[in-house]
Specification:
It is a single chain. The chain has about 600 residues and is an alpha/beta fold. It has three domains: about 120 residues, 3-Layer(bba) Sandwich (Glucose Oxidase, domain 1); about 110 residues, Enzyme I, Chain A, domain 2; about 300 residues, Phosphoenolpyruvate-binding domains (TIM Barrel), CATH 3.20.20. Helix content is about 45%, strand content about 15%. The chain contains 23 helices and 17 strands. Strand 11, helix 11 and strand 12 form a beta-alpha-beta unit. Helix 2 crosses helix 5 and helix 20 crosses helix 23. It starts with a strand and ends with a helix. The N terminus is likely disordered. The protein binds phosphoenolpyruvate and magnesium ion. Magnesium ion binds next to helix 18.
């Protein structure tokens, strides 16, 4: 990643445009005024805790300090990508923030206040910050006065980490604003209204994390992992976000703006051209039909799924039901959502996934009662959490069973690693169905098909045993790559190692497909690989006939399918699977794509 200060061509008075680069995670061009999403005090409620809750509250605070230190160290590591003078200045500032969180008056003061005054941790932080700021102000020392702002910034970071409140409030922004932030969670991003917000860029984040997926779902151009972003921009600066090339330009010259406006118009024309494919069948040149379904990250994408010609919903990520709220969604609310999707698809199949919550995606109402795991990606999450906490699983299964009465619905289970997990969910499904029938709810005689996400390498290797329990498979390449290659999909520092064409990943995919095909069991891919035309020939060549992807990717993949010969694709896939070198694999695939 690099930063270039590009001298202005003289068209703006003494100005200069700054070009920063990062990971382009959601294609498209946005041009608009910058809104820096750091400000605003998170709201804090005061809670008097009991004696028996003190220890847990102190631990919660200690965890928030640890998370804040980790964030600051990551920020510090990024300063090396800045020009020397900026790196030094930002480095000093971050060192000061780190010191404030390391056995400091602030940390000790909050800890004592929780024990002494029985305040909840966030309220204790708020009071402590206020008192420290007042004592600094009373000393009338200009150095200490300057530190007051730092103390407040550190306090806000602690409170946000305690409350898990979204970093951003988007109301009151000028239309067409571009959001710049240190980091945005998927929940923060889901609050963005694409009708009002043009795009966004952040300092942290990997290309396959859920923030990136939500950005693509909303069609918002986005660039993540941009070092120096917040040091180079002021609120109100004009900013260009190029989510295709991974470039952010602050204070662009009029010439640059004109160039990017022309590119934005060309992209819109291309999209309109692809829209004409909507009504054409998804069939290869040699007559093999391929089902293209849509992934839904948010319900508003239903319209797009239909508009892009999806023949079903291959993955409904139900996590959106939990975002930005403090209570758990009940059966009725979930039924209303699933039923609307089933009815909206008008007889086409809808695959709803049970909650993939846990780790960093832990819902707020649950996180209060469970400690931050040391290793979130490997912890109590997804189906493991649902099976442990039936408050999550049962209302979901009930809602899905009822929605299955309104049209074809399949149930998909995330992060399956053993056949026993599928068996236990099937047992729970039958139990919930009996309960519903006793309540007088009419259910279809056959319960909905129960499928397993194959996204843990062990599940792929045991695909033949899982195939004995599941009714269908959906390969989640995003996590499969993450776990196979030990690459955190949301961490920009290792993003360059995230490689779908690694032979280990391809072999796991092949193994899974073969296990399913031997039993004539339905199988699809619903990870991001499915939506990239570069991989289409390989996936079809390996035997897949069902791909599920972000709705706006459907036309491009369909175009690729319509130009393909399946016999040639299968031959090339065999040649690729004989290789063990990633570079050779990429070359074989790209050469094939260039001519076929
Ligand atoms: C995957 O892991 O590939 C997948 C589709 O699930 P998610 O991206 O929601 O983890
Ligand atoms: Mg996954």
């Amino acid at each position: 990643m690099r930063i270039e200060e590009v001298a202005d061509s003289g068209t703006r008075d003494g100005g200069s445009e700054r070009r920063l680069s990062g990971l382009g995670v959601s294609p498209g061009i946005a041009i608009g005024p910058a809104h820096i999403a750091e400000g605003g005090d998170p709201s804090v409620v005061e809670v008097q805790i009991t004696d028996s809750e003190v220890e847990a509250e102190r631990n919660r605070f200690a965890e928030a300090v640890a998370v804040s230190l980790k964030q600051l160290r990551r920020l510090k590591a990024k300063t090396s990508a800045l020009p020397d003078s900026a790196a030094e200045e930002v480095g000093y500032l971050l060192d000061a923030h780190l010191a404030m969180l390391s056995n400091s008056r602030l940390v000790r003061g909050v800890d004592e206040r929780i024990a002494r005054s029985r305040f909840n941790a966030e309220r204790a932080v708020q009071i402590e910050i206020h008192e420290i700021a007042q004592s600094f102000a009373a000393m009338r020392d200009p150095y200490l006065a300057a530190r007051i702002e730092d103390i407040r910034v550190v306090g806000t970071r602690l409170i946000r980490n305690l409350t898990k409140q979204p970093y951003v409030a988007y109301s009151g922004l000028p239309a067409g604003a571009v959001i710049l932030a240190e980091e945005l969670t998927a929940a923060d991003t889901a609050l963005m209204d694409p009708g009002r917000i043009a795009g966004f860029a952040t300092v942290f984040g990997g290309a396959e994390g859920h923030t990136a997926i939500v950005a693509r779902a909303l069609g918002l151009p986005a660039v993540l992992a941009v070092p120096g972003l917040l040091e180079h921009a002021q609120p109100g600066d004009t900013v260009v976000i190029d989510g295709t090339d991974g470039c952010v330009i602050i204070d662009p010259s009029p010439q640059t703006v004109a160039e990017y406006e022309a590119r934005r118009d060309a992209l819109a024309r291309e999209r309109r051209g692809l829209a004409r494919l909507r009504k054409l069948p998804s069939v290869t040149r040699d007559g093999v039909e391929v089902s293209l379904e849509a992934n839904l990250e948010l319900p508003i994408e239903l319209e797009q799924a239909i508009a892009n010609g999806a023949v079903g919903l291959g993955l409904v990520r139900s996590e959106f039901l939990y975002m930005n709220r403090d209570d758990l969604p009940g059966e009725e609310e979930q039924y209303a959502v699933f039923s609307a999707l089933v009815r909206g698809m008008d007889g086409k199949p809808v695959t709803v996934r049970t909650f993939d919550l846990g780790g960093e995606k832990l819902a707020r109402p649950l996180s209060e009662h469970s400690p931050q795991p040391a290793n979130p990606a490997l912890g109590l999450r997804a189906i493991r959490l649902s099976l442990q906490d039936r408050r999550l699983l049962d209302p979901q299964l009930a809602a899905m069973l009822r929605a299955a009465g309104d049209g074809p619905l399949r149930i998909l289970l995330p992060m399956i690693s053993t056949a026993g997990e599928i068996r236990r969910v099937r047992g729970a499904l039958e139990q919930v169905a009996r309960r519903l029938r006793r309540r007088g709810v009419k259910l279809p005689k056959a319960l909905p098909p129960l499928g397993a996400m194959i996204e843990v390498p062990g599940a792929a290797l045991a695909a033949d045993s899982l195939a004995g329990e599941a009714d269908f498979f959906a390969i989640g390449t995003n996590d499969l790559i993450q776990y196979t290659l030990a690459i955190d999909r949301g961490d920009e520092q290792v993003a360059h190692l995230y490689n779908p064409l690694h032979p280990a990943v391809l072999r796991l995919i092949q193994f899974t497909i073969e296990a399913a095909l031997r039993r004539s069991m339905p199988i699809s891919v619903c990870g991001e690989m499915a939506g990239e035309p570069r991989f289409t020939a390989l996936l079809l060549g390996l035997g897949l006939r069902n791909l599920s992807m972000a709705p706006r990717n459907i036309p491009r993949v369909k175009q690729r399918i319509r130009g393909l010969d399946i016999t040639a694709a299968a031959r090339r896939a065999r040649a690729i699977m004989d290789q063990s070198d990633t570079g050779r694999i990429a070359a074989l695939l790209d050469d094939f794509n260039a001519v076929a």
